[in-house]
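yo, Beta-galactosidase is done. seq:
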Amino acid sequence: MTMHASMQGTSVDGPGAPHVFSFAPNGDGFLLDGKPFQIRSGELHPARIPVEYWRHRIQMAKAMGMNSIALYVMWNYHETSEGAFDFQTDNRDIEAFVRLCHAESMWVLFRPGPYVCAEWDLGGIPAYLLKHADIRLRTDFASDPRYMRAVESYIDELIPRVRPLMAQNGGPILMIQIENEFGSFDSNPAYLEELRQLWIRGGIDGPFYTEDGIVQLQQNQSHVAGGAIALSNGNAAQIEAVRKAFHDVPAMAGEVYPGWLTHWGDAAFQGTSVDLSATLDAFMRKNLSFNLYVIHGGTSFGFYAGANVDADTGEYQPDITSYDYAAPISEQGVATARYMQCRSIIERYLSTPLPNVPAPIATIPVIDSNGVRRLMPRRYASLWDNLPAALPLADTVQPQPFEMYGQAFGFVLYRKKLARYAGGALDIGDVHDYATVCIGDQYAGAVSRASVPEHLALPLKAVQREPVALPMQHEHAVLEILVEGMGRVNYGHAMIDRKGLVDPVVLHDASGASETLANWEVVPLPMDASFVENLRPLCSNPSKPGMFFMATLSLDTIGDVYLDMSEWIKGVVWVNGRNLGRYWHIGPQMRLYCPAPWLKPGDNSVLIFDLHQTEAKPVSLASSLYDNSSVNT
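structure:
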């Protein structure tokens, strides 16, 4: 088979060596220092990978045959509260990630949004913008200056970090993407041009590119002046079609999907049967540029996993914590069978051998003399004995969403004293997104915005957008609604997705009379690191759901591990204060990934908050996401 020398690509020189990345005059492709250059890119998200594993994942991509890394920057991961930016701590140091790519002789496609989608909460846009009742997102200055002023502030923070890392300045960044898949959202050339001008004003005049599906691109003309075109779910035929429609504009397959995303409640992990071999072979044979989305997904740690709304049914579909994506490199960084297949296809077309595949990260032994190793948590603390102060009543006549109280993630408790209470039913409307209801110390039921399979809902009394039957209680009972905000919608026009109680709460009493409840106590519960670190080990009522449990994981040596939560119902897990993310017994994900750098030799604390369980259950250790590790092939 003929070798394509140009496909090997130019290596990244040491720091300070400038390069010229440009477009062929006739739009046939890309040029690096005047020579034809094929972009072979794999997508990695620094926010989803522990900083200690960044280099390993970059090396894994390189050993599969990539010469570039594409990366999203999640705006809300860096501006965690309005005006407060963090590009230094932990895995937020984007400059360090790009320099690691440079050190590994890998080029970079930089995808800073401001909207990224990415199955990430609100597509990366900060939730504080939703405090404005009439906010418009992803639009130009004239349509909503509040949004664009926030975007301007964000890009102004990025520019001095990015400018030295551009290829022409001796760095590895070849192109900057303007917005993301905007043609799937709207037609607004003014908005895209305003974004482009923000970069130009900061001294970065490109090269730029956009990303869209071919139909959306053609319908909404969502490319930018002088920019390249990247295609979502692109293939060789679509690149040819775009080249005919957009003369003199280079095109690439910007998101080639080797797997797919998974929602809570799906029957199984998605994307495991994708066969990319023919598509990949065509790219290599025709010397076309591409980006695998994703080559390695990682994990949406904490509360950052996003959600979709089904276009046909309107059903809310929150994403699981894992972003394994059935990608060639698994969530824990293992080269899957699919990885080896892709590597083999690419290597056939290259003139020099690929580097060896890096050794996998060590895992903790999960089998002991008694079989599968298990932790046995103990009841540790009740949420109800650890409530912070409520907000002033003047602010809470009607319950408001999280964002109106300045809270982005976690839980909020809405509490109301009921006069002359004698049972009935409670209508809390379209709760966002999951609520447990108590009358006094008695659990009444749960309401889920997302569908819950009937055989799993009944033990919890979980219903979907239906009134909760309330038990009889004494007069002056206290009604408590604990609401969990799950992922904000990250795609489409349902993105204005505020969390908490978004409708009035109506009590229908036994006589048939109805009352809209007002004058609430509201207790913010972001469940952040400070809150869990300062939990008091008190539990005055062990039968009331809303319980924290603690286990100790004792280790001689550290390694990656999964915690199997299949005997638990719904909640969150922290290890040594690190939030591993959500679990939910509706699956399909039952195991949460804990990377080795978050562990230490000796005793490690495992803290579990479960919305329903009042009795501890075992937590088994596992070595992979799947029950059968061969699923991701």
